[in-house]
Structure formats: structure tokens, C-alpha cells
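note to self — DONT lose this again. spent like an hour looking for the file last time. sequence + predicted structure for the chain T wanted, 423 res
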Amino acid sequence: MKEIVSADFEKEVLQADKVVLDFYSSECPPCEALAPKFESLAAIYGDDVKFLKVFRQQNRDLAERLGVHGSPTLVFFEKGREVGIRLTGGIKRSEIMHNLNSMISPDKVNSIKSSLKPFTSHYDVAIIGSGPGGLTAGLYLCQARVNTVLIDTGLPGGHVSLTHQVSNYPGFIDPQPGYMLSHNMSEQTKKCGSVFKVAVDVTKVDLEQKEIVIDEYETIRAKKLIIATGTSPNYLNVTGEKEFKGKGISYCATCDAKYYVDKEVIVIGGGNSAVEEAEFITKFASKVTMIHQFDKFQANKQAQEKLLANPRVQVLYRHEPRSFSRMGDKMAVVVEDLATKQTRELLTDGIFIFVGLKPNIDLFGGNLELDNWGYLKTDEDMRTNLKDVYAVGDVRSKKYRQITTAIADGTIAAINITRELDS
């Protein structure tokens, strides 16, 4: 695979037939996750499409000219013209193949598909999910010389990687940026020797056979499984929410607050996430209006006091949204006063929703024992009701869901698994 610089772009890309160009950076976990996929696909498609790399940090002029603002970014060209869908961040193998297949003939696509031979990888332990619980389990297992793989449909870190600051993690006097805390956790586990397969498509999980199929061609078999899939944001299921998701409605302040400099936003919710993320949004927005269904917040007192002391914040207690729509370049929210039952329309530049989380268990079928809220039941050693299947972190039924409790779960599961494998 060839690496180019800005001066090569005209000849190597614009004057070539079919090209995929990878803009990568150093110290970039998503770039590291992409590299083996990019290289393996170059071996498969390389006769028809030229695979090139460019170091974005040393070729900023080219990146800026093409509007590339993040790493990694894959840009596809055909006869000097950009084609397909530009890919960035946690890029999946299937997404790259979709673009590549659109650039070659159907006969060639069929030939490549028929040449792909499924294979099986064997491990002692497979961890599904790479948030703090999964990463900790992976760290303890690899230090115990247990052959371990971590599998994730996204990138390592879980919700922590999208959290602005973490102020209650032991060992740090000052608040830590969430992305750095999760990065350090994943790098520690990776350096120890655990195998990472991230930003993959998990196409099948068989908990009885301890098999996981990723990207439709690799089957991972393990003696024991750890489920560490965490949670996802709840939706309000209000008219307009799905239509405007990512188009005025966001569920991630760290991702999107920067787009609302000197603008007005609405934050819906009143728990820890809503209050802490709203405070972060005030660093950008000129005004933040909180909408909460109860007469007081449920967040911790310190976070509440800090938010309510902020002059940029106002709160509508005992209100709920009833619909979302767009009016020109503004978003419109119809809210109901739960006391008077009257409704009114609020205009804003953007909307952030933080109304709780749900466990990510759709991959696993119906044989796992759940609590009344859909979380996985375990014993004190993190065992589920299925033999050799454990659960750790936020996906597990428990009273408190914090980084520290997820880490404790991962520690307990790993130590028990190590002892069982050694016995």
C-alpha cells in the first residue's frame, strides 16, 4: 500500500482510474482500528482499486482543500471525481466494501464474494463490548495470560469516550476528559496483549455454543463469554423525534455542542446526564432551556447547584415535549405544562435529549434472565443464568451504574473466569 503527500495527489489520485484514499493521523484509535481492515481489503480489491494513505497532520493543505476534518476519513475517487459515501470515524468493513463494490462490475463483485473464505478464531474468553467493564475484564485476563478478544460494534470506551469530563474517578485530582480516560484504559488493555476487533458488524451471537460471527466471515469461538454491551439512550417517541435525529436533535453534547456557539438550545431531562451535559453546553450556547417533567432535578446536588447558578440556564419544571418540527433554520418544540395542561411552542437552534438509557441486549435472544427493566441478572460473581456466560457493567441489573461499578464488575468476572480456567 502506497503512502502519498499533497504533491502526489494530482498524479496518484486525480489522474488514476479508481482510488480509495485514507486520511489518517497519529495517536488516533479509530485510525488504528481501521488499519487492518484497510490493508486486508487492499489485498482483495487491489487489482481493481488503488489503495492509498496520506498522513493528515503533515498534509493539512490537501485535507482542508477536500474538506476532510477528522481522522480517519476514507475518500473514494473514480477518474478524478469523488464518488460514493465519504466514511469517517469508527469505519466498518461492510461500509468500505459497499463503496468498493459500487466502483467495480457486478461480475467482479460476485467473484470477490465467492473468493472470501469464512474462518474461525479461537480464544479462551470473548468480551462483547469495550466500555470500562469490558476493558477492565480484558486487562485482568490478559495479565493472567488468558487469551482474550474484545469485540465492539463501535470504538473502545463506551459512554465514557463521549463524556465531557469525569470528576469522580479515583486517582485524579482534577477532572479528566472522558475521551482521554477511555483512551488510556483501552491502550493499557491493548498493550497488555488483549486482541481488539472494533467497529465491526456483529452478525450472529450463539451464547450456548459461545460463538460470535463478525463481518459475516469470521467466527470467534471462546470457552467463556462476557457481555459488556452497556446501554443506549432512550427515545421520547415524540412526533418528529426520529425525523430530526441528527438534524437538529442530538443525544451527545460532547459530539454536537460545538455547533451551537452563541446559539440557543433546549435540553430535555433532569437526571445526572441531562444536568451535567447541559452545564457543558453552556460553554458554547448563549442560552440553555431545560425541560423537565418533575418539579425538581434528580441529578446529584453539586451538579444541580452548579447548573442553576449559571446565568445562561433557565428551567421549565413540570413540562413535557409533545412534538418537534422545523421552522426555517430553527427547531420548534411544542411543550405541555403538566399542571395546567396548556401547550405552547418554543423556538430554538437545537435540541439535546437525555432521558435515561436502555440495556443493549438485542443481539442475545431470549434465553438470558432479565430483571423487570430488561437488564441482565447475574450472581455476585457476574455469572448469568447461562453456563460460562458473564455480564458486567451497565448492561447488568444493579442499583448504581458508574464507571467505578463497571470496573468492579469487570474485575470480579475476570478473576472468577481465570480461576475456573486454571482449575
